[in-house]
Specification:
This protein is of the alpha+beta class. The protein starts with 13 loop residues before the first helix and ends in a 7-residue tail after the last strand. Helix 23 packs across helix 25.
Length: about 725
């Protein structure tokens, strides 16, 4: 069943949409577009917008905006279906089944972004913006759909309640419009700003529109005259061109007047023209012809062809004094540059004749978004991040040079120190002096376009904490912040080392770094520095580390609940007794089997014992150790390789005693000038006790090896 949108004679019907897409993409999948159109139409059946119109008008309008950007089929389908997950009964599985995983993921991505409403508190707003940017950095298609969605919503914002209009306009002005500008999508940025301006200050906008319209009417004849003059100039030098007059947006006029603190009339009465040529060479020819014809206004020439903006924008801007000393603003660019100026990074994704356009001037959106993503991840505090983001997205760029001519792009208002960090973090950390255009400069001095900057570095990191207050770039701020964070961690790590050594000496134990290495795994730390820093900051106590190295030291002796030796093995037949096989000496906690020998005596072997192979498995009796706490009465033999130094053997014996284990025998089997090899028979409770004992011995820096040995014996 179709909704009532079909009964409206709209130019946005599916046949018209497909026909318009085919103009730039003859290979479009017509059936996919039709299927998505009818699927979305059915999903939104009987839903209405605030205006009272059928809701599906909105997704179609979003799809048409994407079509104007010359997007691919998948992106346009996403526009048609972008509200289905949030506002209809459709789910991800259905969309994946109908349109495939890629489109389903696109729709899901847009849906998640739609849920990011900006509340009144700045911290929550920053967190939502952070999440949104991380999401779109993974999928640029989602960015285009979201901007198209916001643009159509702003075009129809008058149907929302006043309070919601104001909130949406603020969001648009502070975030969505700058984001479009950051992506080079200047037309979209200007329209979003102007629509938001109409909500936020309608009287100011109406005043500008009224006066500007009057000026345009007065200057219509002059515009025609100047147009003919420019056409004549360019024909004389024999180049191919197109010429356009440029209308200024009300908000653009208002902003420029406020930024430069100049009267409205000074800006509004300038005539604007755009010249589009076939080649860069022709663009410079056109510039020369215009400057010969009319006097250039000093300081108003900007060459964004040789020095492109960070978003890929290229063009020549100049202002000259034309007839009757009227100011004429002229932009000169090639057709490919014009496409980027109109579409921004969308030009990188646009289609022509069924294939993605290879525009050499278009910047990949992934690159631009990854830069923003890097800024996001560097900031821990939300308010700091939001302040930086607003600066980053609203700032123009300054182009400076190294002494060797390398171009360095910086945000507007960047300092000499920002320049140093842009070259290399170490150069910034070691900053001591600088020269700008051959003259001495301070770290906080602001740079201008074309400055040549030479940095003098001490080579030794010595940042000042106050540096973060005046640097502008995220790279510099994060590098300075990271330096002091790591410096603090070093200080805490050193304090942790002092605290641990003091505690170990207090307990009478020797101190060495093997103790830390032993504690790492038990405490789930990834590095020694992190563990020591947490000790230094009191996040964990020195006793926590001691317990991780010497767990038996903290275990209380238990009496009555200790398992009697006669009941240590479970599974013996009535009246049978057992003995541990000397070949493997199993201890409680290890898997065991029994071999019945003479009479009723059962020999207990560890399951891995090689001598079990001598017996048929039919003789193996499944046994297990009692799960209770055992007494330390099970001797095992440890082979220890230790340094031949005074006091080492004493420390090992002390460590064994501190683990509540007894030494029943000790033998030195190899004596060299630099090491001893000894075998020690110790009594343990079970496998856990044995492992703790081995760990505590291995923690000694003079112990290089410790292994468990079987006692060689032919008896079973």
């Amino acid at each position: 069943m179709r909704n009532q949108a079909n009964n409206l004679d709209l130019p946005s019907g599916v046949d018209k949409l497909v026909a318009d897409i085919r103009e730039y993409n003859p290979n479009t999948d017509r059936e996919l577009i039709r299927k998505a159109y009818h699927y979305g139409e059915e999903c939104h059946r009987n839903q209405l917008r605030h205006s009272g119109e059928p809701y599906f008008i909105h997704p179609v309008a979003v799809a048409r905006i994407l079509m104007e950007l010359k997007m691919d089929d998948q992106t346009i389908v996403t526009g048609l279906l972008h509200d289905t997950l949030e506002d209809t009964a459709a789910n991800y599985s259905k969309l994946e089944c109908e349109f495939g995983e890629q489109i389903a993921n696109y729709i899901d991505g847009v849906t998640k972004l739609t849920k990011f409403e900006f509340p009144d508190t700045e911290t929550l707003e920053a967190e939502n913006v952070r999440k949104l940017l991380l999401a779109i950095s993974e999928n640029p298609c989602v960015l285009f759909v979201k901007l198209a969605d916001r643009l159509h919503n702003m075009r129809t914002i008058e149907f929302l309640p006043p309070k919601k209009q104001h909130r949406k306009a603020i969001e648009t002005m502070e975030f969505y419009a700058p984001l479009a500008g950051r992506m080079g999508m200047q037309n979209m940025r200007e329209e979003l700003e102007d629509l938001a301006f109409q909500v936020l200050d309608p009287q100011q906008r109406d005043s500008i529109c009224f006066h500007y319209a009057a000026l345009e009417k007065q200057s219509a004849e002059a515009v025609q005259t100047i147009t003919k003059d420019i056409e004549s100039l360019l024909r004389d030098i024999g180049i191919e061109f197109k010429i356009q007059s440029r209308a200024k947006k009300p908000f653009s006029i208002w902003r420029k007047a406020n930024e430069k603190n100049i009267p409205f009339s000074t800006i509004a009465d300038a005539y604007g023209f755009r010249i589009i040529t076939e080649t860069e060479h022709q663009a410079y020819q056109a510039l020369g012809a215009i400057h010969i014809k009319w006097s250039a206004i000093p300081g108003r020439l900007k060459d964004y062809i040789s020095q492109p903006k960070v978003n890929g924008y290229r063009s020549i801007h100049t202002t000259v004094l034309g007839p009757n000393d009227q100011k004429i603003e002229v932009q000169i660019r090639t057709l490919e540059m014009h496409q980027v100026a109109e579409l921004g990074v969308a030009a990188h994704w646009s289609y022509k004749d069924g294939v993605r356009m290879e525009n050499p001037y278009a910047e990949d959106s992934q690159k631009s978004l990854s830069e923003l993503k890097g800024s996001i991840l560097e900031f821990e505090r939300s308010d700091k991040f939001l302040d930086h983001l607003k600066l980053e997205m609203n700032s123009n760029r300054v182009f400076c040079f190294t002494p060797k001519g390398q171009v360095v792009k910086l945000v507007q208002g960047a300092s000499v120190l920002d320049f140093a960090y842009a070259i290399h973090t170490n150069l910034g950390h070691g900053f001591v002096a600088a020269k700008v255009d051959g003259r001495s400069a301070q770290a906080q001095d602001i740079l201008k376009n074309g400055n040549t900057v030479e940095i003098v570095s001490a080579g030794i990191p010595s940042p000042h904490s106050k540096w973060e207050d005046f640097v502008k770039s995220a790279r510099a701020k994060s590098a300075i912040r990271r330096y002091f964070r790591e410096k603090k961690e070093e200080e805490l790590s050193g304090q942790g080392m002092i605290d641990l050594r003091s505690q170990f000496e207090k307990e009478g134990w020797d101190w060495n770094m093997n103790i830390i290495r032993t504690a790492l795994n038990n405490l789930n730390y990834s590095s020694e520095k992190e563990l020591l820093a947490h000790v230094g900051s009191k996040k964990i106590s020195t006793n926590d580390v001691i317990k991780a190295v010497y767990p038996e030291y903290y275990k209380k002796q238990e009496g009555d609940d200790t398992v009697p030796a006669a009941q240590a093995v479970v599974g013996l037949k009535a009246n049978n007794t057992y003995r541990r096989a000397d070949c493997c000496n199993p201890v409680p906690g290890e898997k065991i089997v029994g071999i019945t020998q003479r009479g009723k005596v059962v020999s207990i072997h560890a399951i891995y014992c090689p001598k079990l192979k001598q017996f048929s498995e039919r003789r193996w009796e499944p046994l297990s150790w009692n799960s209770g706490r055992h007494a330390p009465i099970y001797p095992v033999t440890l082979e220890i390789k230790m340094a031949n130094r005074a006091g080492v053997l004493g420390r090992i014996c002390t460590s064994i005693g501190e683990q509540n284990s007894n030494i029943s025998n000790l033998r030195i089997t190899d004596r060299q000038h630099d090491f001893y090899l000894l075998e020690v028979d110790v009594d343990v409770r079970g496998i856990g006790h044995l492992h703790s004992l081995q760990s505590s011995i291995k923690a000694d820096s003079d112990v290089s090896k410790i292994v468990r040995l079987p006692i060689e014996s032919n008896s079973l």
